[in-house]
Amino acid sequence: MKKKRNLLENIIHGVFLILGLITVGCVLMITIYLVISGIPAIREIGLVEFLFGDTWAPTAAQPQYGILPFILTSIAGTGGAILIGVPIGFFTAVYLAKKAPKRVKEVVGQAVSLLAGIPSVVYGLVGMTVLVPGIRRIFRIPDGSGLLASIIVLSVMILPSIIKMSVTALEAVPKEYEDASLALGATPEETWFRVSVPAAKSGIAAAVVLGIGRAIGEAMAVMMVAGNVANMPNSPFQTVMFLTTAVSYGMGYSDGLYRQALFSIALVLFLFVMLINAVLDFFLKGEQK
Amino acid sequence: MKKIISIALAAVLALSLAACGGNSDSLSGKVATDGSTSMEKVIGALKETFEAQNTGVEVTYNPTGSGSGITAVAEGRCDIGLSSRNLKDSEVAQGLVGTVLAYDGIAVIVNPENTVEVLTVEQIAAIYTGEITNWSEVGGIDAEIVLIGRDASSGTRSGFEEIVGVEDACQYRQELTSNGDVLTTVASNPGAIGYASVATVKDTVKALKVGGVAPTNETVKDGSYAIQRPFVLVTKADTELTGAAKAFFDFITSSDANEVITAAGVVPAN
After folding, report:
1. Which pTM does this prediction carry?
2. Cβ-count burial of A40 within 10 angstroms (0-12 exposed, 13-18 middle, 19+ buried)?
């Protein structure tokens, strides 16, 4: 009887192990595939010229494959989205977790969930028909598409992940901490920002990193508002191309070295995301200690 | 009205085919087409007509863009590739053959608020290469010109740049990935200029007269409208189409299909 039970357990254990290995296998396969298909073009172009070349002209008579404009655009776009999205998301989270009446919290919570569920192409469409003409009128420039429009779209898109994770982190702060602070005569506001937030800081940091990951990986929405021209992001109104959009834009028709270079761009993007995940891991581990 | 004509025509064709032997009923199978998004309307109409005549045949159309369609034929992933530009020498060298199905005019479009009505091809070229940057230089109001273009895989873009003579020289402000995005953007920006298939142009934008000629079916057909391009069917040179694919190819390149092609807004070549 016991043996039979052990056998069954071993079988189930084996099934779970296989299912787990499938996930790991997928990640490994993608990693290996990206490295194998991304390296040749970098070799041919030269790492320095590829990463720091400032001209991207793969279809020109004398092709040039410098992706510095994409890297800087992705960094600027993501940085800008964080600059706008994090304060809004952070204060919303503090309000929802600590101050908001139950009713308000429910409604806002639902709205945030809904925001997370909107497909990115819809963000792009709204950006294209409302935001881009809006920027054109407000700043009195000939065309509103470009870096600023992308930053605004991205900052709205990262709000849900920042708000939801921060609320979870803030709600996990032991009530005793806050009670003690209040008992010592601190106001509720002082308690939130001097006790609750520091206690939840690793969770909030993880939320920000998750937002960065979402922003840097987004392609569809920014493709519709960024203008998709490989310019240096030297002004908020400059039309630009992100790492993600450079890949999806060229994948349909490119061939030869151009196509290989797209895989190299994907590899660079992949490394960026890996770096962000490592940072996320660091923060989450910090929380456990 | 166009629909009624095409349906009536389809019925007549079906009857006449049935009359001469009725072997159309024996056709069955799938015909896979792949390529130019600009050809969606014409291929859709031809597909409906052909399927109505040959109930056993299913024609599929995968709108991926001219370049992707040509690659798909070369790799054997479809029967007929659809390209809205002539084949490049490198593609012919791969053993591909192009057959012109129809001609499509490319309209140069501006916002309806724009006061400019007529431009020459030379002026359009100067605008797209950045020599002319203000509408006042071509008789409009004092406003900066915003150049809207398509992505590099677009058949409309390569067609436009080739005809106007501005290949790889365009100073695009925006490169958008579909005809619809170009129309939306031009319709919402008074300073914008863009290009799109004549068949896709809507009332939300204004099509310019190029050299004084408005882009209509008639002017594209008689060649007086300068900016036009071919719709090309791409097949492999060394492998003959067989069965349903051959029947479909023969039908759409015959004069029997002309009414359907015309009804779809382009000008038949055969």
Report:
1. 0.75
2. middle
